[in-house]
Amino acid sequence: VSKESFQIPPGVLIKTEKQVEGIRKSSQLTKEILDMVADRIHPGITTNTINEWVHEHTIKHGAIPAPLNYNGFPKSVCVSINNVICHGIPDETVLRDGDIVNVDVTTILDGYFGDAGRMFIIGNASEEAKRLVNVARECLYIGIDQVKPYQDLGEIGYAIEQHAVKNGFTVVRDYGGHGIGLKFHEEPHVHHYGSRKRGVVMQPGMVFTIEPMINQGRYETRLMADSWTAVTIDGKLSAQWEHTVLVTETGSEILTE
Fold first, then answer.
1. pTM for this one?
2. Are 90 and 51 in contact, with CB atoms under 8 Å apart?
3. How far apart are CA 79 and CA 75, in angstroms?
4. Using alpha carbons only, how large is the chain's radius of gyration in Å?
5. How far apart, in whole angstroms, are the C-alpha atoms of residue 192 and residue 221?
6. For residues 235 and 83, what is the distance between their CA atoms, to the nearest angstrom?
7. Which pLDDT tens digit goes with each residue over 188-243?
């Protein structure tokens, strides 16, 4: 198929070189913040402490934490422990030996957004918990490997789900990746499961997140009373890694690496 025949889907923003540079800088600050958390995180601290670290580091570098007050979200970072899939709100919960924790950071620098998340294993986790964290990371990079210009976006989710299921895990369907850069959430939605043919073609200049949420048990989710915290329906563990990715003329660039 000739690349001229591809239409840009409605709402998808093809970024200019200037915009990509702005998103790259914001994404690099997001990476630095996660590196800082990696250096400091340990058993016995509260998730609020992580929130304070992220907030202070972001402000100190002239940036804004994107989650703070986003649709009413009360904190500057999402911290999701064990059976929490995503959007965990920092509070006085203490990190304990054996926990697995996702820290999801989104930074606004000079109006541009960069979004990434990492898993942290606190102390000595079970072998199965460690395997889940590792497979979730593999799923992220397998998804990124599918990012190529003029290829269907569905290849990402298809490849991720194949790998998760092969390892005995499931992929969350209620949440996915998303376009990003000029706003926190843009088109397109990036599915992490299902069909190879979603009808959206990746094109140079598209920027989106890939952030598969991989569950130990069932893929269904339940929303807590705070209207943010998503947990596994069966109480089993969930793990998620995330990068912001640019489609290039030859493949992809991970902006948050």
1. 0.95
2. yes
3. 10
4. 17
5. 15
6. 6
7. 999 999 989 988 999 999 999 999 999 999 999 999 999 999 999 999 999 999 99
